[in-house]
Design goal:
The complex is a heterodimer of chains A (about 180) and B (about 160). Chain A is mostly helical and about 180 residues long. In chain A, about 45% of the residues lie in helices and about 0% in strands. The longest helix of chain A is centred in the last third of the chain and has 35 residues, at about 145-180.
Chain lengths: ~180, ~160
């Protein structure tokens, strides 16, 4: 998956606001609180974006959006929609401030450089998007779906005809008994 | 009845539900027009070409939806509609074919299809409420297992 294949110019203002907050590792609930929108509405916007990009995961959506944002405007962190912070959340600065190579001296360093002592996962496991509901059994989906579905229709059809034949046979037998 | 189904499909259904309701609505409206133009009622002695044409069109529509939709119930719609299509030829095969069986095969499926479609619309609305939007049509390949999905970088 190339990073250059994604383009988020199609995203609306509302979707862009959600993406920005997602890129800041906010959960749906936090985004809903920040934008004063219901959580299902936020999930719907994310779902629309995920489907638009081919049913990718939430994490992948965030990764692609960050890459695209960094590509079109490396300092785009400053364009994050103005959102009031809750007391327990801290608004982090732009990612572009990190990872800049330096010689260790403070003279030319305009930004601080930090490194975590331990690796921490970007997304919490519980924050991952749930997969879409499985409506059709796996047997009726996939590359042989046409064949298996056609067979399913034929089996149901035969079962209906057999039931009809049995039911009529029973009805006729009962009629014969009643009529003597 | 069809108005109710149409309203339900527009309000709570997705593309497969709307297509199925559109097929049923078309036939419901076209049948009286056919009788008006043909100038006779239903034909019981031989194959009724007009009704057979309608039933074949419905079957083709339901089968198309059943093959491509991300749903189970269109399989049942297609199967019941095919029962109706087969019923048209039963009189040609044998003259002693019971009238009851003929009536059941020709007219019965329509009244079974309606509740199945209603059930399908209800199940779709419930899934959408619980899980949010999901694809109406099947994908060309099965979804990836959870282990194959991309993971966040470990470092």
């Amino acid at each position: 998956m190339g990073d250059g294949e994604d383009d988020f110019t199609f995203a609306t203002e509302k979707q862009r606001a959600v993406l920005e907050l997602l890129a800041n590792n906010r959960t749906s609930k936090e985004i809903a609180g920040a934008l004063a929108v219901s959580e299902p509405a936020i999930n719907r916007r994310i779902e629309v974006l995920r489907l638009r990009l081919g049913g990718i995961t939430r994490h992948e959506l965030v990764r692609r959006y960050r890459n695209w944002r960094d590509r079109i405007a490396p300092d785009a962190g400053s364009s994050v929609p103005c959102v009031e912070n809750d007391d327990e959340f801290i608004q982090l600065g732009a990612r572009a401030a990190f990872g800049k190579a330096g010689d260790g001296s403070d003279a030319d360093e305009t930004t601080a450089r930090f490194r975590d002592s331990i690796a921490v996962r970007v997304d919490a496991p519980w924050a991952e998007e749930m997969p879409p509901p499985r409506v059709v059994p796996g047997m009726l989906d996939g590359s042989n779906a046409m064949l298996s579905r056609g067979a399913a229709i034929a089996i149901i059809l035969l079962a209906i005809l057999a039931s009809l034949a049995v039911g009529l046979g029973v009805a006729r037998a009962l009629a014969d008994i009643v009529n003597g | 009845m069809m108005l109710l189904f149409g309203a339900a499909a527009l309000r709570w259904g997705a593309a497969p539900e709307r297509i199925c309701v559109a097929i049923l609505s078309f036939v419901t409206l076209a049948d009286p027009v056919y009788h008006l133009l043909a100038g006779h009622g239903a034909i019981y002695g031989s194959v009724d070409i007009g009704h057979l044409t309608f039933d074949l069109m419905m079957a083709a529509g339901f089968i198309a939806v059943a093959l491509w939709a991300n749903r189970i119930y269109p399989l049942w719609l297609a199967a019941f509609q095919l029962v109706s299509v087969i019923g048209h030829f039963s009189r040609e095969l044998t003259s002693s074919f019971p009238k009851l069986a003929y009536g059941l095969m020709i007219y019965g499926p329509f009244y079974i299809i309606l509740p199945i479609l209603g059930f399908g619309i209800w199940r779709h609305a419930r899934r959408r409420r619980r899980h949010g939007p999901y694809p109406s049509w099947r994908s060309s390949s099965p979804p990836s297992p959870p282990s194959a999905r991309p993971r966040p970088p470990s470092s």
